[in-house]
Specification:
It is a single chain. This protein is α/β, with parallel strands linked by helices. It has two domains: 30 residues; 202 residues, Zn peptidases (Aminopeptidase, 3-Layer(aba) Sandwich). 37% of the residues lie in helices and 21% in strands. The protein has an eight-stranded mixed beta sheet with strand order 1-2-4-3-5-8-6-7. Strand 6, helix 4 and strand 7 form a beta-alpha-beta unit. Helix 2 crosses helix 6. It is elongated, with a radius of gyration of 22 Å.
């Protein structure tokens, strides 16, 4: 016969086993790659800034490599940014774990055809400053395998849809080349200079986080933007990291 104390100990042990079992089941079911553990958070919302910064975390497989996308550095290029934010969080078949940093410039955004060309648009510098102040430190300290800064252009380059790293060599360059190699509609082309590089992709590359740009054509039809973005998403997810 068991003593009363022995029975109590066995009951407590069974309860502990049940609780751990439920936790394991919950972890397996709710953290599977197809499940949605995404959260959207505000990183910065200060009245003395020219905009706000948000992040959507945990898109894809939480056990995969962590990869950061950044959108909104140049606010006029928002149609391409919105394309990523529309498509990536709805993918259920990803191998890696993605966070999208979203910069929402509210001052000096302007519009195409307002007399300022894209380079004189004051929203660009506002976005670059928000990127350096809030997004750069998060990515630098966030255990990311790489970062992709998403932009668009008005067609002044020899290619309209392309990837490149502003670094001379290193993993950022290698990843961009491999992505272009695996995308029939995305070229590998590096402009001579970038205005935003010093605020995000250059310091990331210099401090151990491989980083490269994706450039889309600003005036491509939306269905073309969608298909190019899907090519990019797949090629990045299939990189040998
Ligand atoms: Zn840009």
């Amino acid at each position: 016969m068991m003593t009363r104390n022995e029975k109590i100990i066995i009951i407590v042990l069974l309860l502990i086993i049940m609780v751990f079992g439920m936790l394991i089941i919950q972890h397996t079911v709710f953290n599977s790659p197809s499940d949605n553990s995404q959260i959207r958070q505000t990183l910065a919302n200060n009245s003395d800034d020219p905009g706000t910064v948000e992040v959507i975390r945990n898109i894809g497989n939480p056990n995969g490599e962590r990869i950061a996308y950044v959108v909104g550095v140049h606010p006029l290029e928002h149609l391409t940014h919105e394309t990523l934010v529309k498509l990536l969080p709805n993918r259920t078949d990803l191998k890696n774990c993605y966070d999208i940093y979203i910069i929402n410039v509210t001052e000096g955004v302007g519009h195409y055809g307002d007399g300022l060309d894209n380079y004189e648009n004051p929203g660009r510098q506002n976005g670059q400053n928000l990127a350096y102040k809030y997004v750069y430190p998060e990515i630098l300290n966030g255990n990311y395998s790489m970062a992709i800064d998403v932009h668009s252009n008005i067609g002044a380059y020899p290619y309209k849809t392309f990837v490149f790293s502003p670094a001379k060599d290193g993993l950022g360059v290698d990843y961009a080349r491999e992505v272009a190699d695996n995308c029939p509609n995305i070229d590998d082309y590096a402009p001579d200079t970038t205005t935003s590089g010093p605020f995000l992709t250059e310091p990331l590359n210099n401090n151990g986080v491989p980083a490269f740009y994706f450039e889309e054509y600003s005036f491509a039809p939306q269905d073309v933007k969608d298909s190019h973005m899907m090519e990019l998403i797949d090629a990045i997810d299939n990189l040998d990291i």
